Amino acid sequence: MIIRIPIKSKAVVNASGPWVDEVRGNDVAAKQQTKKHLVHTKGVHIVFKQEDFPLTQAVYFDTKDDGRMIFAIPRAGKTYVGTTDTFYGEDKSNPTAEAEDKAYLIDAINFMFPTLNADVSMIESSWAGIRPLIQSSGSKNASDISRKDEIWHSTSGLITIAGGKLTGYRHMAEEIVDDVADYLKKHFKMNVKKVSTIDEPVSGGDVGGSVGYQNYVENISRKAPSYGLTLEEGFHLAMKYGSNVETVYQYAGITNDNHEKYELPKLLYAEVIYGMLHEMVIKPSDFFVRRSGKLYFEINDVLNYRKGVEQLLQDTLSYDDNARQQYAEELDAAIQDTKR
Questions:
Q1: Are residues 46 and 83 in the same domain?
Q2: Count of CB atoms within 10 A of residue 307's CB?
Q3: pLDDT (tens digit, 9 = 90+) per residue, 266-312?
């Protein structure tokens, strides 16, 4: 049952990414005032086992035919390669890597690394994302469309931020918050402090900057054995969670062998508990896809331990069997998409 609750505000920020135009479509004033709209392009990444693609450092290279830049990056025993850039008009909630996307990247790999003899059968997993870009006249190639972000105002109080790149998310966040502060001051005489986060680390980022990161990881991982983890497991977690890692260690240390009930490694059990308590994990796909990235880089963990994770989430969050079945089907679909 859907319950609709009216909420009043002086302004509403529309930061809905690919769905920006749909939100604006509910605002008559916005449709009349701004003629610009989004165009969507798709980017695909493919993942290889490192023994199949033994890369030791990140490289960037151009494709043979269209001159686009491609990257290949080693990560946690894998190598991932991306990305494509093609116009996209299908389901925005579920973009997938199609055969032609994979073939394009395989061709680019073999052009740069001719002795690798890469083929589609070597791809372990893949994923796709959508770029919500601002339409520009005369752009026939997806790669020619600007990645610039813009803010659009409606007289209704709807403030939309559109375009941009994922890597610029903090700058875009600063822009929109400062814009709202100016709007509230101009129209409602409110004094709202502008953003001052340029020197504040993101969650887990208090590690001494890029210079101190490696030392931080090596030092903090020495604490792992005192929580029942191996030094190697502690290092793995520290690389992933940064300065939040000791909290994960603590969850490992207080399992009281509860992880065995769910047939889960202590390390994985601690990650799931941390995800529920600190990262809004509710469904298995929240953990395996959006929080840990295991679906793409540790697919065997997903296949081997999904049942235990599903049971742990259900027991802890107290949802019924129907909800569990629905969430399991969502994970099934995600696994199918990444291996298709």
A1: yes
A2: 14
A3: 999 999 999 999 999 999 999 999 999 999 999 999 999 999 999 99
Is residue 138 pLDDT above 80, yes or no?
A: no
Phi, psi of 114 (to 5 degrees): -65, -25
Amino acid 31: pLDDT: 65
Q: Are strands 69-75 and 78-82 parallel, antiparallel or unpaired?
A: antiparallel
Distance CA 292, CA 289 (A): 6
Res 195: pLDDT: 83
What's the pLDDT score for residue 314? 98
The per-residue DSSP string of 279-309 comes to S---SHHIIIIIIS-HHHH-HHHHHHHHHHH
Question: Do 129 and 17 fall into the same domain?
Answer: no
**Structural contact between residues 46 and 82, judged by C-beta atoms closer than 8 angstroms:** yes
Strand partners, 86: 42
Does one domain contain both 19 and 148? yes
In which residue are the tokens 């009216």 written?
6
Q: How far apart are CA 39 and CA 41, in angstroms?
A: 7
The 10s digit of each residue's pLDDT in 66-94 is: 888 999 999 989 999 999 999 999 999 98
Domain count, the chain: 3
Residue type, 110: N
Helix (H) or strand (E) segment spanning residue 184: helix 169-188
Considering the entire predicted model, what is its pTM?
Answer: 0.86
Cα 264 from chain centre: 25
Residue 103 lies in a domain: yes
Q: Which domain holds residue 120?
A: 40-134
